[in-house]
Structures are given as C-alpha cells and as structure tokens.
Amino acid sequence: MNTPVSTPILQFGTSRFLQAHADLFISQALAKGEALGKVTVVQTTASADSAQRVQALASGVGYPVRIQGTEGGRTVDEEYWSSSIATALHAGRDWSQLRRAIVKDVEVVISNTGDKGYVLDAADSTDLLSANAPAPVSFPAKLLVLLHDRWLLNPHSTLSLFPCELVSRNGDVLRDLIIRLATEWQMAPAFIVYLRDTCRWANSLVDRIVSQPIQPVGAVAEPYAIWAIERQEGLQLPCTHPCIVLTDQLEQYEQFKLYMLNLGHSWLAERWRVDGRAAEETVYQAMGDAALRQSLEALWEEEVLPVFAAKGELAQARDYLASVRDRFLNPFLQHRIADIAQNHEEKKRRRFLPVLEQGRKIPGLLQPRLEQALAR
C-alpha cells in the first residue's frame, strides 16, 4: 500500500465498536469543523475479519452506522454515514509507513486492542528499534517503537494517547506498561522521561453497545454513547462532541456503569439462573416480566441509589439510571442473558460486593437482595 499517511489521528484497532463510537464522533465533528482531522486505522492482529474491514476501510469512502433503540421514551431508528477514516493499514505490511507517520503527522493515538491487547510477547526485543526492523508482535511493543522514533527526531513533541480498552485508569496502565518495557529494554533515561512527562496518557471510560456488524464494514449500535475522559493539562482531544465528556470525576462514571448498568445485568442473570428461566431469554424480554422488573427496580431504588445518595450524587445517579432503563428496554437489541451469565460468580463479586461494602457504612441501610445473591 503506497498511500502516504498524513492524518493527525492514528487508531490501533478496527473493531465495530470504534466504528460506531470514536470514529463516528470524529466524523460528525468534522462536519462542523470541530475535529483535528481524519483517522488512519491500523490492524494489529492477523484476524481475517479485521483484514476484510481494513480492505473496506482503506478506500476512505466511509461506512454506515445504524442507531436503533429507545431514548427518552421514544424509539430511535436512524442511519448515519461515517466518513472520518481516510485510510487503513496493516501493521505488519505497512510498518515503515507508520514509523514515518508517527514522527511528523500524528497528534492523537486512539487504541482499542481487545482483551489481550496489553499482553507482551517474548519475541519482541530491542532489535526491533533498528531502522529496517519488522513490526513487533505485541501492541505495547509496537507503540514503544513508534514513540521512540518520534522522540529521536522530535524530543519535545507532545502526543495525546487515548486507550479505550475496558481497563480502569487505562491511560495510567498503558503508560506504566510502556515505561516498564522501555526500562527492560534499557532505553535512554531521557526517553523514559519523555514517555512519562511529555506524552499525555488519557484515562477514559467508553460505553456504547454495538450489537452487530454491517458487512463489509459498518455497525448497528444503541443510541446511548459516552466517552468520559479525565481532564488533564495539555491533553489534545481528537474532536469535540456531545458524547465526549471531560471530567474531574472519572471514578463516578465508572461506578455508575458498574453499579447500575453492569449490576443490573448481573441481577437479571442471577434471577435467570436461580429461577431456571428460558435459555434464550433476552434483557428486553426479562424487562417485560412484571415481577422480575419489580425486583430489579427495588434493587436499584433500595440498595444501590442510597449508596450514591450518601456521596451527594443522587441526582446524577438517577439521570444515569434513566438511561440504563432505556438501554434495557431496547426492542432492537437481542442481548441474551445466557451471554451475560458467563463468568457469573466473578461478575457478582466485582459488581455486587463493592456496593454492599459501601452500603455497610451507611447507618440503617439494608441490602438483603445483594446479601442473598452473594451468599448463593
């Protein structure tokens, strides 16, 4: 592929999630003159599905995003054309182009590399820093080599990095991983200072259910979307958009999602398992069962919201909970409870136990449903 890379945004990952989230936001912002520019997408794996998406995205023509669901009590069924992606590359095949681009064109890096995206590979070594070396295997090593190239030619150039992996404080985690790898490779102390102090690593939380792909490229998603980014001096956003929120309280957004959306899903999974409900039942169908819906509403109202009330966050929590109801009542989304119920015991521990522990500090608050669920 000989197309030069000259976009200010470099994105690692071709997932349909990014197509319907960050890439769509950037497309909509570009139409208003409120984005840095277009995106170059990089495939980092050998996945055949990713390769097909890269081939389709490389044309720069764009792709459809269908938004279907319920918002504020009204049904939404709309389609948008996303045109933010200028081209798409494969890290292995187009590595030399990427190494040139990171030095002069790129201002923002976005990543969403999946569950194993931060796993290192023993095959990666300092040999990969040489000018004609092939691409590293792991994403962290790829990023380290690119950042080193940038530092060598422009040691004072800032770069804003937005990992979108579902890891708490993902920016801090990725920064520390890259610095650890640089230290293991015995790279220059001045470069490690550059990684720590000059690069801007954004902690953020992303959320949108992207339920289906559209072939060869595109996605079907729910109306709800958020990209909550922790405020940081010197951070360069890829765009401005109503769904992008700069906040000093990222933990609040994480807790809202974990303790209302995720907890609600796991409560439905708990009842599904205990009550022996239909194998193919969906969240939407479960919400149509009056008794089950009542138990979920009581759980939220009596055992979860008081925890946020004690922190002075009740109004914001109720607003968020209203959006969760819309999402659970999405007639277009076939979200099987059997899928939610995978790794159920671990999910219960992560989603129920912190609410219970915080609730125990509140005088007079009883949380019998959570107590019983964790005791099973």
TrEMBL record:
**Residue limits of the Mannitol dehydrogenase N-terminal domain?**
10-232
Q: Give the residue range of the signal peptide.
A: none
**What positions does the domain Mannitol dehydrogenase C-terminal occupy?**
250-359
Q: Does the keyword Oxidoreductase apply?
A: yes
Q: What is this protein called?
A: Tagaturonate reductase
| UniProt keyword terms in alphabetical order | NAD, Oxidoreductase
- The UniProt record lists the keyword NAD: yes
Look up the coiled coil feature and give its residue ranges: none
Give the matching PANTHER family.
Answer: ALTRONATE OXIDOREDUCTASE-RELATED, MANNITOL-1-PHOSPHATE 5-DEHYDROGENASE
- Identify the species of origin: Pseudomonas abietaniphila
Its Gene Ontology molecular function terms? oxidoreductase activity
